[in-house]
Design goal:
- The structure holds 2 protein chains of 2 kinds.
- Chain A is 0% helix and 55% strand.
- In chain A, strands 2, 4, 5, 9, 10 and 11 form a 6-stranded mixed β-sheet that branches. In chain A, strands 1-3-8-7-6 form a 5-stranded antiparallel β-sheet, with no helix packed on it.
- In chain A, a hairpin with a 2-residue loop joins strand 6 and strand 7.
- Chain A is globular.
- Chain B is mainly β.
- In chain B, a hairpin with a 6-residue loop joins strand 4 and strand 5.
- Chain B is globular, with a radius of gyration of 13 Å.
- Chain B starts with a strand and ends with a strand.
- The chains are: A mainly beta, B mainly beta.
- Chains A and B meet through strand 4, strand 5, strand 9 and strand 10 of A and strand 4, strand 5 and strand 10 of B.
Amino acid sequence: QQPVQSPQAVILREGEDAVINCSSSKALYSVHWYRQKHGEAPVFLMILLKGGEQKGHDKISASFNEKKQQSSLYLTASQLSYSGTYFCGTVSPGNTPLVFGKGTRLSVIA
Amino acid sequence: GAVVSQHPSWVICKSGTSVKIECRSLDFQATTMFWYRQFPKQSLMLMATSNEGSKATYEQGVEKDKFLINHASLTLSTLTVTSAHPEDSSFYICSARLGVNLYEQYFGPGTRLTVT
């Protein structure tokens, strides 16, 4: 079952922050975040495993609340290069395939 | 590490012909490979899961006789679109998983199929 992402789209000015949310109605083993630029394949950002954790890389971080079956991606001090569509993907226990949400289109403008 | 390649990058074919897309894991053995399809401005939709040496598992609504998947080795999976029609035009992306208990998936660069 497809996870639900919000918002569907967001426009930021350079330097502003954004939060993208991902929630699932199913128990989750892991949450994966990807960014996709137009015409390209998705690029892996990070994976969060059950047990509830937070991760970060540079100015992009994420959290995973296993009990609530939710994850959030945090982009701080956004840069023009952050523009793209962000997808969360979820994996449920049992080596199930990665299922993607519908995506959040992020546009960063100067 | 964990590089996945796809070939071809793009292909244009006539309606009614068949097209084969290859997906290779270059520096690791992939026990499981996945095929996704993405239409413009939409999300990636899982088509099928393939495990080396066994039949692929197709998602609901995906015609297994139309989209033939072969996972002949731990580094190669192929998707053949048979009797292609214009509505099959899409971006096809494969991904590979390192192991049964390793849930990271690495994606190939995708193949853009246009059926005229």
